[in-house]
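Contributing new records

If you add data, match the layout below exactly. Sequence lines come first and carry their own label; structure lines follow with theirs. Keep one chain per record. Anything else will be rejected by the validation script.
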Amino acid sequence: MMSSPLKELHRFGVSVWYDNISRELLSSGELARLIDDGVRGVTSNPTIFEKAIGGSTAYDEAIAREAKKGKSPAEIFEAIAVEDIRAAADLFNPLYDETRGADGFVSIELAPNLAHDAQLSHTEALRLHKLVGRANVMIKIPGTKAGLQAFEDATADGIPVNVTLLFSQERYAAVAEAYLQGLERRAAHHKDLSRVASVASFFVSRVDSSLDKRLEKIGTPQALALRGKAAVANAKLAYQTYKKIFGSKRFAALKKLGAQPQRLLWASTGTKNPAYSDVLYVEELIGEPTVNTMPPATVDAFKDHGRCRPSMEEDVDAARAAWEQISDLTEVDAVMRELEEEGVRSFAKSFETLMGGIAAKKEIVQAEGGIVESGLEELRRAMFVSRLWDRDASLWKDEKEHQKIIKNSLGWLTAAESMSLSLGQVRQFASEVKSEGFAHAVVLGMGGSSLCCEVFRCCFPAAKGHPKLEILDTTNPDAIAALEKRLELKRTLFIVSSKSGSTIEPNCFMDYFYGKVEKLAGAKAGRQFAAITDPGTSLEDLARRRGFRRVFTNPSDIGGRYSALTLFGLVPAAVMGIDVELLLSRAREAMRQLSPAAETAQNPGLRLGAALGRHALKGQDKLTLSLSPSIDAFGLWIEQLVAESTGKEGKGIVPVPSGALSPGRYAGDRLFVRLELPNSPDKGAVGALAALERAGHPVITLPLRDAYDLGAQFLIWEVATAAAGLLLGINPFDQPDVQSAKNQTNSLLSSLKKGRLPSEKAPLRAGGWAAFGDDGLIKALTGKSAEKTPDLPLEEVLAAHLARLKSGDYCALLAYVDPGEESQLALDTLQTALRQLGDFPVCEEFGPRYLHSSGQLHKGGRNSGLFLMLTAPVAEPLPIPGREFDFGTLHRAQALGDYAALKAAGRRVLRLELGPAGSQPWKALRNALATLAEKRNCRA
């Protein structure tokens, strides 16, 4: 029987330690199998624990247990880390005994903030080793100057130490000297030396990564020929230092007393440069006695194709020559110092992220309480998880018409897997677009086909050489004209995105820009267009007839708002240079946590869904979203998903932006959800949320490792929304009230006279502006019979409208204007002003985008919305080829259509026709609201 490659390494004097630890690794039996396969130890660090704890729910129960004891995040981490270290040490204990303390060690690191404090490091090393209570545990102390003293003291006390973050031969020699001094101090007190073990973790791949960059910058043939040689040469020369020190008479005297040599441990052995062999830092560093601590991928690679030979003593003279050449070309000593400093900072950063992740999970546990548990219990009784994955439509509704919709809407569950099969064509397309030098890629879409793209555009930087992604999801002609002005049409790719293929907005966008490109490119215009649609749509047919560069057909069993992880999101993401495979892999990680095989209580989608549904039923139906600034756009996608999915049958969850959080100003109808990135500190938001939680508001924090975790969040929120739909008793996959605004718009467009909409007569004027409203508002302002149209002060009209807000209501600003930066800032100001008038939530939304998002909730949800609709004149008409109407007419028809639909649904609505930009309409609105706030404060 052939020996394991890892055991074969041990025959050559190398002990393989596994550079990874997690609760799952322990509980699954995988670590025990690795030990059988030849692994002889384990190392850990803050980065490893941060990934293990933040990337799974395996620790949630332990976090909950420790949180109930009132422990801080640091205390919680220590408790759960010690559990893992003890469990791993127990597995290795037989090997430790068998080798008489030479192998079978598990390492745990001191807190990174102690790296430059010798006394505290020594004290903490003693405390931590005693706390773990296992002889075969090594305490990791960084090889900083302060760390050397702490290491010597710990050695004198008999504590096994792994000295980490060593890069230079000189620093390694100092570490070996500290080890000898510690042993000599211990021997002077006649203490046992036989079980005092230590390793010196000498980092490898990072040396090549850093020095290769410098050599490439130098760029001479000599410099370029030395790439990839520094790390191995540095390690081989350190090994020669090891042989000299531990072959000396000084150590021989200690060895007679039972002392073991401090072995060199090769750390950072995962190859970072794909041009190098993935087992380079294993095969080239085989010598006796050493340790090689390998990450999982390197272990797998070596088991698959690694080869053993006594390489450590090969070509030592060549290694010395290479190192001397590199030292002549660049400042090696400075690089080594930088690597040490960077290593300390990196672990400190990971530790900070880890603490934030634990704090977030602690908050989730404390915030959810019994209300979530009752929701989870209802989901358990309904066998929600298994029936969801079986695509059982009867989970939500019994009626056949509902079940037909639901059965054709659940393909998103496995999109992260099925879409992987389509990535070849997606990547090829993105490569073509990049190679042909397109400067911009414009997504022409609405709702589900555009909002996920907006998330990618805003949350990820465009990769070098890839086109800049733009999103067109407004029919406002001023906005379209401004976009066109920014584009170099000859170098612009247009992606027409429509599930049905018949949505009016993307089709009009397509006709407009196709006409523009056709004038420049003639018959080749189609090469600047691609389409994403369902199979068999009119868009697919038209795109093929026009010779589009590519036509992508998406699975038809996925609704628009659930399509982020399908071609609708992946194609634009890949075009702008996002790693779509990594995005999908994060979603596949989430699939495992969301599957029937996972515990219901640990299922992140179910926990979130139980919170959303149960809190909404309790009256806390205002989902107040707080996001790290760099992923703020993800809130737009959540808004569409949650609002359009739940806002029907007089029920619903109202997503609202948090804005600047102000503890003490909120009513009891809120559920706060925070999505937190570790590298986007927002102490103000975190502190405010903590204050809100102390005040009794429910707060959930969802930690993300980085922006690519949005891949997981897409799926988690989709499952959560489906679960909330069950608890609310609605079908989360239809949108019955979206059609009402479309019907009203189509009716207006069909009644055009010479391309113009029918004229309207305003029932009143507000500060000189035409004003329209529901019957109740107009009657209150004008009386039963008015001989002429009254012109009332703007603040009086606004006061009458806003006075109708009741407890539990929300206010929505619906703006049919150019959604550019100026309008966005103006709406933000109005939103702030409205918040000064009460503790009601305020949403701000641009039309017609919201028609494909929260429009369903506004008309089909609970009648708790008060709507202020703003329309404004456009600068110039913008014709649409082949249409009787232009964009300005379409934009206005959509505003009037939605206004009519809101009135028909019995909603409280005021529509104001703003004056032209020169009349400073935003200032007039802001002043009117400020006047109302002053009067309110005076009354208070």
